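TICKET: design request
STATUS: open
ATTACHED STRUCTURE:
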């Protein structure tokens, strides 16, 4: 099996690690984390250092991995940083074996599809995305790069979710809706209308509560 690294060592990383193990294609060589001590272990895998060691690992033939950071903007920044220091690094796509995905779906690099996800016909999932546990994404929809769908989310057909936007736990988006870039759909919201860029939406039905800045935190831990 090919050796890879997992960038990130929090709870989200644990779920990704177990998905990787269930696939049986890759062997996790170790973890990269900017804040946790070298040598600390997560699910038996050791933290090797910060992203600055990636060029050294690449010289050893370990030049693939996945960014296991839940926050969209932070994940995007880390992807960009890794490409700057090691341009040949390859981001793998992780799809849990229990996911049900149409053969006509396109999934980008560095994206993670968790357990019990359903993605229907002709949907497009961009680079660096997360489709989390038990989420459903409808036909002909587009999830743009570095966006995420949290556990238990239902997205209807022909929905477009733009760059770096987040749909939080248990939210629902009806068919044909467009969600702009860098927007956040709050937990449990019901989205019936289009959402503009840089908006925070909450409620049933969902309403734009405020305008937010790029990179606004929406989860306490990545």
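STATUS: resolved
RESOLUTION: sequence designed for all positions
ATTACHED SEQUENCE:
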């Amino acid at each position: 099996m090919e050796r890879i690294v997992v960038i990130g060592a929090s709870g989200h990383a644990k779920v990704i690690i177990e998905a990787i193990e269930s696939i049986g294609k890759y062997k996790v060589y170790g973890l990269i984390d900017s804040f946790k001590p070298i040598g600390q272990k997560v699910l038996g895998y050791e933290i090797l250092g910060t992203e600055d060691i990636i060029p050294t690992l690449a010289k050893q033939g370990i030049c693939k991995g996945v960014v296991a950071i839940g926050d969209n903007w932070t994940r995007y920044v880390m992807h960009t940083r890794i490409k700057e220091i090691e341009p040949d690094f390859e981001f793998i796509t992780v799809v849990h074996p229990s996911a049900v995905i149409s053969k006509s779906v396109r999934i980008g690099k560095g994206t993670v599809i968790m357990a019990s996800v359903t993605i229907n016909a002709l949907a497009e999932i961009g680079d660096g995305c997360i489709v989390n546990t038990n989420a459903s994404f409808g036909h002909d929809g587009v999830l743009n790069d570095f966006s995420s769908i949290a556990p238990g989310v239902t997205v209807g057909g022909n929905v477009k979710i733009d760059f770096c936007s987040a749909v939080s736990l248990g939210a629902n988006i009806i068919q044909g809706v467009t969600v702009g870039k860098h927007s956040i759909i709050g937990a449990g919201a019901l989205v019936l209308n289009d959402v503009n860029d840089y908006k925070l939406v909450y409620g049933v039905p969902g309403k734009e509560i405020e305008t937010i800045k790029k990179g606004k935190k929406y989860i306490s831990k990545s």
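CLOSING REMARK: Residues 72-85 form the longest helix (14 residues). The helical segments are 11-23, 54-59, 72-85.
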